[in-house]
Design a protein that fits this description.
Length: 504
Amino acid sequence: MTLKEIRGMMSQYVDNGALRPQDRVGLDAYLRTTDRAGAWPAGAQPFFSGREANINAFRDMLRCMLDGERMNLAFIVHGAPGAGKSALLHQLAADMGGLPEANGQPWLPVRLARSDAASPHAAERAANRAMAARLAQQGAEAIRQAAERAQAVIQRALDDHPEASGARTEALSLVNDLGDGLSDPSGADDRDWRVRDLVDRAGSGVRRTLHGALRRGFGAFGVSMGPAPDLPDEGIADVVAANPGLWQEHKIVFFVDEAQNLNPNSESAKDLLQTIYQGDAGAAVGLCFGGLPDTEDILMKMGISRLPDGRIQGLAPLPVGDAEKVVRRGFKQFGVRGGGGWARPLAERSCGWPQHIQRHLAAALAAIQDAGMDAGRADFAQAVREGDLRREDYYRCRRRSMRDYVDAAVGVSEAFAQMPGGSLRNPEIARAAGLSDDPEGYRDFRLAAIRAGLLAEVADSGGTERYRVPIPSFAAFLREEPLEPIPLLGEPVGAKHPAQRPAN
Ligand SMILES: Nc1ncnc2c1ncn2[C@@H]1O[C@H](COP(=O)(O)OP(=O)(O)O)[C@@H](O)[C@H]1O
Ligand SMILES: [Mg+2]
């Protein structure tokens, strides 16, 4: 595929509703693990649907990488708990990994633990391991080619060092072991140890050369050498320069989730992220963050600011059609019969909140499983009730997360009840919360409420900050309002009962 063709497909992610490899899960496993995106180590979430605009916005950053840009390659996904940030990050990584190579450079999405986002070597290790996992997946022929490349690097580096012939022979045969061992991640530490031992035993005259050669050659097999001997203080630019096979021959994006918990006072984290963001790492490397709504402020303190348009994506609920797709995908995967009428009312009941959709879907599937996978024989009302209960459980956790402020939160949710769909300013919220105007006390409450999903800042609210409730049903839960009656299967869509609380 030509570069032009690849560029052309960068804004064309479409979700056509078909099942994908990530949807191939067993029913029991699915019912056990629907709570949060992180629970699926393999990455992309079962029945992930919609979010096309967000994915295309991310692809736009990838297009900039194709165009050779190095600066300002950052993307932020933020939203209340359960909005689907982690799920979207998984999907972005899966989508990116599946894009066609440009100029022979594969896309390499790399998950970076928050604690590793302060260390160039930890970042290198994460990237090497991602590269090794990719290689293992590609199979024997790709592994053989990678081994040949690694052996060529080692040969070349040690050609001028006849005194290192022993180390060279050992290193060359180690390459084969590394390739054979790729499918066995449990041996990774043992292999790391053998490589380090080899360098330690080399004579001092050749140690640094050997280290450099192995670092370049072995990265593809997930072995990370760390800093060169006698050079403990490497920055990310040194790390990049040490292994061009990794950084120049791949297009890497680091994914950091729960980024609201990055420490903005950590100089090493700031240094690493800022150097990459400013394009000074020596390669085009992208950053993709997920986090609660205050993530943007935290990153701004770390020097990740003034992002290009479209790079900060706040997650709203899914449109009802996309929520229906989640249910339909689930029903299709598990061979549900006669469930056509269920998708719409379940999607509406969840009001597009991803966390709720998956809970309602799981409750529906459990009921349908009891009826031999025939939805026509399952108790729809009971399934909805069960989904409602799972959602309330979730809200109880959120209320607990605001434990110092439960009364204040109830007061605020009552103030919002007077103005459905409206927004309030800080002084109004402070008054409703029964808190003084003392900025410290109020600010702590506001952060807790934002992180729990009770408040969200209204975008473009002009000079004065205004807040709304991102999930109205959470506010209604805090007010202890009764739920809307359970819909009947086949009841006209949108028949609302005005006196009662919205189900979302
Ligand atoms: N677009 C989506 N389609 C289907 N399910 C989704 C979608 N987004 C999130 N989910 C599901 O909703 C639940 C919560 O999502 P998660 O990503 O963990 O939320 P967050 O990280 O924002 O707290 C998970 O079970 C996840 O699989
Ligand atoms: Mg998450």
